[in-house]
Structure formats: structure tokens, C-alpha cells
Amino acid sequence: MANLQLLTRRKALAFGAAACLAPRGAWSQTFPTKPIRVLASAAPGGGTETSSRLVSDYLAGYLKSPVISEAKPGAGGMLGAGLVAKADPDGYTLLYCAASAVTVAPHLTADPPFNTLTDLAPINAIGQSPLALALSPKMGIRSLQDFVKAAATRDIMLGHAGIGTLAHLTIELLNNATGGRIRQVPYKGGAPAVVDVLGGHIDGTVSDMASLFPQLQAKELVGIAITSDRRFALVPDIPTIGEVLPGFTAPVWHGIYAPAKTPPAVIQQLSDAIQTIASNNELKAKLTPLGIEFRPFPQPGDFRAFVASEFNRWGKFIKENNIKEG
Fold it and tell me: Which pLDDT tens digit goes with each residue over 48-66?
């Protein structure tokens, strides 16, 4: 009788363990069973929205299920992020955005529509897009070293895409790192800043690579440095700022997120899909002209830790420099 009771208890424990594991395994095996919506927190036609559509198309091919990208611009990227944060945590509504939408913008509003660290589940990074410091040829400056020396002796006017953008924060970082006299001129987007550099109204700009590449290629602007941690294939001759100012990085990261409490098996499956398409040379060739280098993290946990680190880094910097919403 005692042996029978022991056997019964063992069966019960085994059944309970199997029941605990079943949902994750079953969910992973059946996901996806319907179209996935990817909300791109950016205006149509820009680098972020265009790359979202490209990545969604390749994810659809890998997952053998429709993946539909929709532009949801607004509030510095927070509109789309807020919608995803409130969506059902089932993996069928995802966020595609530049990192500033979840690591910078929330620090610049008194009542953000979501909490980055608790309302979103980072899946994986798509890659990084360096910003570039570009100057008018009339400045006569051809290196970052010369730029730092010039900024120490006179005002240099640099345009950027607006208060609170990574381009703006990069200029603030440059001033802090060099003790220079860089003066910032905010615009409503990076393109108007580039136009004013070409027109001779300001000395230069910190802008995304997609906006600057045609002018850099035509020698209408001089690329001094980029903000990523390594040189970029599109402009291999332009050094990183970190080569002159060690430790300096401020690239634009693009990534995909799900609502918090999305099943870990689904997060892992989507992360694995991103890892797989990252090796697709055709897709990489399409992302390069947009200024994006495919660089996913090994696991979702690695990306989650990176997002938390960047969120805290920029929050501290914004507070210490008393940066307010534009």
C-alpha cells in the first residue's frame, strides 16, 4: 500500500511538472497562427519606418505568417510605444523603434504613456545607425582633432533634429567632453539642418547617416566623425568619435519590443527569427543605404539589459544637464 501511494505521488508530481512546462512549449509550437502587427514609431518614408517594413517582410518569410508594419509616429516615438505597451501580451502586436523613443523621450515628459522598464519586453536589436558630425567645407576643418581645437577658441554652430533627440544629446556630450564652445541650433528634423549647412547659415550638423550620405558622397559636406563604437561600412574612411575621445558612443539603435508579460517562449522565438534573418545578405544590403548595420544581441536578456542601461544613462545625463522637452 505504501509503495502504491508513493507511486501515485510520483505520478502526480510528474503530471504537475509537465503541466507547468506545457504552456510554454505549446505556445511556441503554435505561434504564430495569425498576422503579426509591427507598429513603427516613425513617420512614413524615413529610415526607421522603411527598415521596419523591410525587416517585417523577412520575418514573415521566416515565420511563414504575415507580418505587417504600420507607421505610428508621434510624441517622439512614444505614441507607438504606448500602444504596444497596452496591447495584449500575446506576441501579435510588436513595436519597432529607434532607441530614443524608449530611452530618451520618456525622460523629457512629465507623464509618459508607458514605463520602459516594466511595460515593454525587449525582444532583440535590429542594429545601429551612427549619427555623423558633418561640417561645411568652408570651415576648413578636416578632422575631429582640429574640430576640438577650433571649438575651444570660437563658437561653432551645429544644427540637429530637435531638443531631446540623440543628435542634440550628442552635441551636449561633445561639449562636456571637450569643454568646447559648440552652439546648438534645433530644427524640426534633420533634413532642414542639412539644408542650412549647405546654405551657409550654420557651420555643421549632427544628423543620421541616411540624411547625410548623399552630401558626404558628393563632397558637399565633410564627415568629421561618427557616433558608433566602430567604423561604418557605408563610410569606412570616417573615424568614430571614440577614436579621439575614448569611450564616446551615441549611436541610434533600432529594436523590436513586445508588451510586458508576453510568454518567454514567444519572445525567444521572435528573437531567434531576428538572429536568423540577420545573416541574410540581401536584407543587410537593403539596410546599409538606410545607415543601419544589422547587430542583434545573442539573447533577449542581453538586449533587455542594454535597454535598461541606456535608459538609465540618458536619464541621468538629461537630469544633470537640465535638458527640457522642446
Answer: 999 999 999 999 999 999 9
The answer to whether the beta carbons of residues 286 and 297 sit under 8 Å apart is no
Q: Which three cell numbers stand for residue 6?
A: 508513493
Every domain range in the chain assigned CATH 3.40.190.10: 131-243
Stretch 223-242: mean pLDDT: 94
Superfamily of domain 131-243: Periplasmic binding protein-like II (3.40.190.10)
The set of residues, in sequence order, having a beta carbon less than 8 Å from that of 303 and lying 6+ positions away, is: 122, 123, 124, 125, 255, 271, 296, 297
Q: Are 167 and 207 in contact (CB under 8 A)?
A: yes
Q: How sure is the predictor about 16, in pLDDT bands with cuts at 50, 70 and 90?
A: very low
Helix, strand, coil percentages (3-state) for the chain, rounded to 5, are 50, 20, 30
Q: Whole-angstrom Cα distance, residue 87 to residue 107?
A: 22
End-to-end alpha-carbon separation of the chain, Å? Answer: 77
Q: Residue 268: which H helix or E strand, with range? A: helix 264-277
| Bigger pLDDT: 52 vs 45 | 52
Architecture of domain 34-129+252-320: 3-Layer(aba) Sandwich (3.40)
Please give the pLDDT value at position 29: 63
